[in-house]
Every structure is written in structure tokens, then in C-alpha cells.
Design goal:
Blueprint (H helix, E strand, L loop, with lengths): L1 H18 L2 E9 L8 E9 L2 E7 L11 E11 L3 E6 L9 H7 L2 H17 L2 E6 L4 H16 L10 E4 L4
Parallel strand pairs: 1-4, 5-6, 6-7
Antiparallel strand pairs: 1-2, 2-3
Helix pairs in contact: 3-4
Length: 168
């Protein structure tokens, strides 16, 4: 009985790893470690939301158990998501910044913020720290960009992160 329970426990503890969704990214050039040279023809293996392996060459999806999603970036240079620690997603600095903001409704500012957030995300920034935007509106932006990725958009990032510095 003890061996049977051990086998069941072991099977249950391993099952999530075996059944985890696997994504492989075929990268033409991969810069995985800052300060080291990039490497050609690499495969990034992601299970769930974690990178679990980086392999030389382009791995065959048949090597993996269960469903495998392949992201083909064979012609692309791939690097970890970039971080910008000082952004203003609700406005851009410029000569007409103050007068434009005074003419815009809260809803217009919110829509423009979505545009700025999507531009930032599409440029490869997966982590930003917003300095001075409205907390309530920026929480909505964070939810919108997360739903954008969950809807199947294949940008350059696997997940996005967002934090704000608060009001000054």
C-alpha cells in the first residue's frame, strides 16, 4: 500500500510538469546573457510562463510531449525584454504638451495612453516604470496590454510588467 501511495503521489507531482503547455521559440540570433556574444540558431523552451531551457539549433517540436506552440523567429535577433525605468505613458514631452493636455478629456488621455503603451510594448519593452501618471487609469492600461498578449498577439515579449511611481 505504501509503494502504491508513493507512486500515486509521484505521478501527481510530476503530472503538471509533463502536461504543462510548451512553447518553443526558434531564434535566428539569441542574446541570452548580457556581456556575452549572441549565438546563432537557438531554441528557447518555455513551459507555462517559465523559460526552462535554451538549446543549440532549432529543436523539433516532436521532441516535446503534449501540445507545443512554435514561434518562428529564425530571421530575427532575440533578446530579453527591455526595461525602461522612466516613462510617461499618459503624455509626451514637447513644446505643446501643457496646452494639449488641457484640451483633452480624461477619456482622450486614456486612449492616447493605450497607444503609447502599445508602442512601448511593440518596441520590446516588457517592463516599464511609469513616473507620475494617474494610478487608476494606468491600472486599466496594464490590464489592457495583458489581455492584448493573451489574445494571441505575437509581439517580442512573453509577458509584460508594469509599475508606477505614484503621484508627486
Amino acid at each position: 500500500m505504501h509503494h502504491r501511495l508513493t507512486a500515486i503521489f509521484l505521478a501527481l507531482s510530476i503530472a503538471p510538469a509533463v502536461l504543462a503547455d510548451t512553447t518553443i521559440i526558434h531564434a535566428g540570433q539569441l542574446l541570452a546573457i548580457p556581456g556575452e556574444a549572441s549565438k546563432p540558431e537557438q531554441t528557447i523552451v518555455i513551459e507555462g510562463d517559465r523559460i526552462v531551457d535554451i538549446r543549440n539549433g532549432f529543436a523539433d517540436p516532436a521532441e516535446f510531449a503534449g501540445g507545443v506552440t512554435v514561434i518562428d523567429l529564425k530571421a530575427q535577433f532575440v533578446l530579453p525584454g527591455l526595461t525602461d525605468v522612466h516613462v510617461h505613458l499618459q503624455h509626451e514631452l514637447g513644446p505643446k504638451n501643457d496646452s494639449e493636455n488641457l484640451k483633452m478629456s480624461a477619456q482622450q488621455i486614456e486612449m492616447r495612453s493605450v497607444l503609447f503603451a502599445m508602442r512601448t510594448l511593440s518596441a520590446g519593452f516588457t517592463t516599464v516604470r511609469d513616473t507620475g501618471s494617474s494610478t487608476m487609469e494606468m491600472d486599466e492600461i496594464r490590464g489592457t496590454t495583458s489581455r492584448f498578449h493573451e489574445s494571441g498577439h505575437q509581439g517580442q515579449s512573453h509577458r509584460n510588467r508594469y509599475s508606477y511611481a505614484g503621484q508627486f
